[in-house]
């Protein structure tokens, strides 16, 4: 009997030890997962920022494909998302053929009259009949219908490890994004430029960030970020983390969709690792 009891007790101890080990591994896995909580892998540079508008009529030529890379080379983000009024979230604007015809949304530029960089912008949604030009926007699943090709268009632009370096391209005058549409929205006076500031991190191995107001206001002005994305309060009162960024809030509102991806840590944290590759 004692021998049997010892064997049984040994089995029980082994089982208890096994469960403790499993629990410890699970707990360490949770902690490890939190420590390496990384942003999702970005789409390839040619596809990064692509928006597909599926709310089209059954008789239309199909979904519209909007490419941010082409439009950001010609217009600032502020112009489209503040003056024209495109929402920052998918399906948040309510673009329709009728609103475009009336000169709103895409129709603010695509009216067949406005001149951008010396070229007349083609008219969109101006007739009820399908014409081949419709495929320039209704391009989903169609090949060879676009006027501009990503690789040839961006070939002469400065690059970093993930596609074109749009900031350097603007600084060097290779692109000159317009910040207003004459006749669409009233000209606005420039707001006073705020100073740059440092952002410290809560982990000793994560380098701090220097946030440049100048670089961001070139593209966004002040209105695109404040107060919707970042509350207009003392910077010490605004609480955000990399977790909130990865969830699409704060910096992630742009740096998961259009601006260089969060995976490119070194763009903000000097000498940090990088996971986003071209």
Overview of the structural elements:
This protein is mostly helical and 278 residues long. Among the domains are: 51-153, Cytochrome C3 (Alpha-Beta Complex), CATH 3.90.10.10; 190-278, Alpha-Beta Complex (Cytochrome C3), CATH 3.90.10.10. Helices cover 28% and strands 6% of the residues. Strands 1-2 form a two-stranded antiparallel ribbon. The protein is globular, with a radius of gyration of 25 Å. The model is unreliable at 1-9 and 25-35 (pLDDT under 50).
**What is the 3D shape?**
globular
Radius of gyration of CA atoms, rounded to a whole number? 25 Å
Structural class: mainly alpha
End-to-end separation in angstroms reads 70 Å
Side-by-side strand order of the widest sheet: 1-2
CATH fold assignment of the domain at 51-153: Cytochrome C3
Helix content: 25-40%
Sheet-strand content, in percent, reads: 5-15%
CATH architecture label name of the domain at 51-153? Alpha-Beta Complex
Question: Unreliable runs, pLDDT <50, ≥5 residues?
Answer: 1-9, 25-35
| Largest sheet data | 2 strands, antiparallel
Total DSSP E strands: 6
Query: How many helical stretches?
Result: 9
* Oligomerization category of the chains in this entry: single chain
Overall mean confidence score, pLDDT: 83
- The string of secondary-structure elements, in order, is HEEHHHEEHHEEHHH
Under CATH at level 1, the class of the domain at 51-153 stands as Alpha Beta
Question: CATH homologous superfamily name of the domain at 51-153?
Answer: Cytochrome C3
């Amino acid at each position: 009997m004692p021998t049997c009891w010892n064997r049984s007790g040994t089995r029980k101890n082994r089982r208890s030890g096994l469960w403790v080990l499993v629990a410890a591994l699970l707990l360490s896995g949770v902690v490890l997962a939190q420590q390496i909580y990384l942003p999702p892998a970005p789409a390839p540079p040619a596809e990064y920022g692509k928006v597909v508008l599926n709310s089209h009529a059954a008789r239309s030529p199909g979904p519209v494909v909007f490419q941010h890379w082409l439009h950001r080379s010609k217009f600032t983000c502020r112009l489209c998302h503040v003056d024209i009024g495109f929402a920052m979230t998918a399906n948040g604007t309510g673009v329709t053929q009728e609103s475009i015809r009336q000169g709103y949304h895409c129709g603010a530029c695509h009216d067949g009259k406005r001149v951008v960089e010396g070229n007349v912008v083609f008219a969109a949604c101006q007739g009820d009949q399908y014409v081949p030009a419709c495929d320039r926007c209704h391009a989903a699943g169609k090949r060879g219908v676009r006027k501009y090709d990503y690789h040839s268009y961006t070939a002469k632009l400065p690059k970093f490890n993930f596609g074109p370096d749009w900031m350097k391209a603007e600084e060097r005058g290779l692109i000159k994004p317009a910040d207003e549409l004459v006749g669409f929205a009233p000209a606005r006076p420039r707001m006073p430029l705020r100073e740059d500031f440092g952002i410290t991190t809560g982990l000793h191995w994560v380098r701090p960030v220097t946030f440049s107001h100048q670089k961001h206001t070139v593209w966004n002005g002040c209105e695109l970020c404040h107060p919707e994305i970042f509350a207009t309060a003392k910077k010490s009162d605004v609480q955000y983390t990399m977790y909130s960024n990865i969830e699409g809030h704060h910096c992630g509102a742009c740096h998961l969709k259009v601006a260089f991806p969060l995976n490119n840590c070194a763009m903000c944290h000097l000498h940090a690792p990088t996971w986003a590759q071209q």
